[in-house]
Amino acid sequence: MLTGEKKKQGSDYAICVIMALAMALNYQIFILSNAFAPAGLNGLATMVQYLFHFSVGYMSLLINIPLAVFTFFAVDRRFALKTLVFSLTFSFALLFLQKLDLTRFIYHTRDGKSTLLAPVVSGVINGAIYGVTIRRGGSTGGTDFVAAYVHKKRPEYSLVHVIFALNTAVAVLSYFVYDFNIEPVILCIVYCFITSRVSDDMLKAGQQAIRAEIVTPHAEEVADCLLRELRHGVTILPAVGGYSHRTKSMLICVINKHQITQFSELMRQFPDTFVCVSNVTETLGNFKKVSR
Question: Average pLDDT over the chain, rounded to whole?
């Protein structure tokens, strides 16, 4: 029987394959037929296909296989293998789809109407794909290989400026590639923005939470209520009122965002309790559930 670790790794690879298939379909339906370049190295590959009819599928293989081999030996083997599986699946799936007649399904804007829908929809889809793939320990390839290497060698460096420069170059080049038209530049910018926002939200999903600081004279009762109803632990600290100089307690509790309504209802049971709530951008450790 497979161990838990092997099952997890198998699940990771399976999800990478599914995400790559979805990305290939997304490219074929929304991107390649609408005269704009997406972000990153695939944006350059898309422009090469537009100019020379050399498929993005082949370009992806030429770009990602050498980068995957380099990353395998220089950075992280699992990351390289998962990303390579994604890249190979994406390339072969795209090459296969380009041999099929998908005219009925392809969204195109030759009539000039609803031009923004292509980068908006494709940006949302690819942003979600990127987020899911990264959470599984892989990536969509291209600049992610470079990012992994730089992060290992220089963890203090930020790749934001490098990625921004590459995407800017893609946007500017698209003006010259697509018949000196400003519209592809705008579509590229829209795509980059939406993809980034969606992928960030996907990566932060499950890590964001609510931090509650509760000042109360009923520390034990409040703590027991939160533990019983919300299944979250509480840290109790001694506190003194600045005006009344009365001894109280401050409870610190981190809860899931969807529990905020229930939390508010519970706090109404303690009218002499003050609560300060703030957003937590990331949580580490198991804060979701406490067994009793």
Answer: 86
